[in-house]
Specification:
The protein is an alpha+beta fold. The protein has one domain: Cyclic Phosphodiesterase, Chain: A. Helix content is about 25%, strand content about 40%. The chain contains 4 helices and 9 strands, in the order E-H-E-E-H-E-E-H-E-H-E-E-E. Strand 8 and strand 9 form a beta hairpin. The N and C termini lie far apart (about 35 Å). About 20% of the residues are buried.
Length: about 170
């Protein structure tokens, strides 16, 4: 079973549409979220038990700029960046609580690039939008989701546990 811990983000349909209109050969996520951790083959109960009783303060985020993984020369993922001091604090807590490997680049996947077709146009779009502030939002819940493969539909995500922020 594939599991991931995430928070939902505002949709960036405008940016995703611009990428589609470039004719880039890519797949496009249906759901918009920032993944904090990913597990394959882990029992959900173990993760839920580790998250029980965890609390965090709501934190502000900014979707800002764009970039590529692993790098611009051979891009596989086109993303919008996420800036937030509060997010980094929560992530550090989760590294300790869940035994995660440190190292995290907060981002929102816009497209998974399948080939080099029209990638130069995508690089130009990235240069144009590298400092653009897309939207500000508040994160008030973390979601543990399981990813279920569906025939011809990719993956469906089902929330199996929620950690709500507390004000104090």
């Amino acid at each position: 079973m594939r599991l991931f811990l995430c928070f939902e983000t505002p949709r960036l349909d405008e940016l995703q549409s611009r990428v589609r209109n470039l004719g880039v050969h890519a797949s496009y996520p249906k759901e918009f979220h920032c993944t904090l951790a990913f597990w394959s083959g882990e029992e959900p109960r173990k993760i839920i038990d580790a998250l029980q009783g965890y609390s965090f303060k709501p934190f502000e985020c900014v979707l800002k700029g764009t970039g590529f993984f692993p790098h611009e020369r051979r891009p596989r993922v086109f993303w919008a960046g996420i800036e937030s001091g509060g997010l980094l604090e929560v992530y550090e807590d989760l590294v300790e609580r869940l035994g995660l490997e440190p190292g995290f680049t907060p981002h929102l996947t816009i497209a998974r690039i399948k080939s080099g077709k029209n990638v130069e146009a995508l690089r130009a779009l990235a240069r144009e939008t590298q400092e653009k502030e897309w939207v500000r939002f508040t994160v008030s819940e973390l979601l543990l989701k399981k990813s279920v493969s569906t025939p011809n539909q990719g993956h469906e995500h089902e929330t199996i546990f929620c950690v709500n922020a507390c004000e104090s």
